[in-house]
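Entry:
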Amino acid sequence: MRTRKIRLALGALASIAAGAATAQTPLTYSSNGSNVTLYGDVDYYLNYMKSSSGSRSISLQDGAILRTRWGLRGDKNLGDGYTGKFNLEQGLNDTTGAAADTTRMFDRQLWAGLATPAGEFRVGRQNTAIFYRGGYIDFTARTLGSVVNAFGVPSRYDSDLAYLSPRLAGFMFETHYSLQGSAVNHTTNQGVYQAALDYEVGPFRAGYAGIAGKEPNGAVVARNVNYSNWYANYNYGAGKVYLVQIRTNNNGTTAGAPAGTLNNGGSPLSNVGNSLVAGTDTGANTYYNISQVSADYQLDPKVRIGALYGRIRDSSGTGKNANGWALGSFWDIFRDTTLYVIADELKNDPNAGFRPSGSAGLTKTFTDPADVNGQRIRGAHIGFVYKF
């Protein structure tokens, strides 16, 4: 019965992918120097996971590589080297038809900007500098299978003021400041700060992207929450080699799970801007070093394979360590349609409780601490992503 279900699901995925391939590329309307583009993607995958506790999970999921979404982006040439820009984007759960975040109309992005000869200025809900650099981190673009992604990545914040410099002598600088914690009471002294520096020359790229959230005055846990990301990659012609090192204390416990608490999974600083540092999550006292090496290889113009290995090391002595690996293959079967197959493993030490995650968090995953804490979780995933 289990085999039959898997075959039926694989057949459905293939049929959907074939149908998606007949759709059109992004629709752009242009008039008098203005351009508006409707775009998006659909990402379905069949997800199989097995915990060393003996529990298993088979489910249809959304967003292994790209969270399913639709969006509008536009620009208008204002003359003299100036361009007005905007971007609004809504995430969707394509297994249910629901909005990814039912409290927002545009949960992923909604910003306006001005591109100038001196750089680009933006204001609104924006992706973080760390999020934008996912493609520089590993062969998965830091999505399903990535050990870094299992930890949780700061993705976007409200009321964000940003500046992106032009690239000069190979260098590009970016900075953000989110005012979302300052609207009601300035005495809390909260905010979210970001800075990034990227250097690219020939086949080599290296850089840093960091984020910091300030705890309120008088917090019980009086610690800033930081996420510092150093990366490098090298294009050797037939593929890339990637290295990444992260230092962060943005991880805590996940309360409310059946029969107890997951040892990891919370975020003292929300990764999607739902809340700032409350100063009550003792997880902020635990610092982690995350190291990962990855490489990919282009078998032919349409097929790419890759592998990675990563380690999460608790440097505060509480034993919340984990390590993992992933193998993946990506096949551009049609224009704008990619089929992917990923196998991965995440092994938790006795005090750790990390779980795999895609571009979108898994809606059906292990929630019982007995299936996560100290367990090894293996997965096999097959799906497709179609971009329009």
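Residues 2-387 form a domain with the Porin fold (CATH 2.40.160.10).
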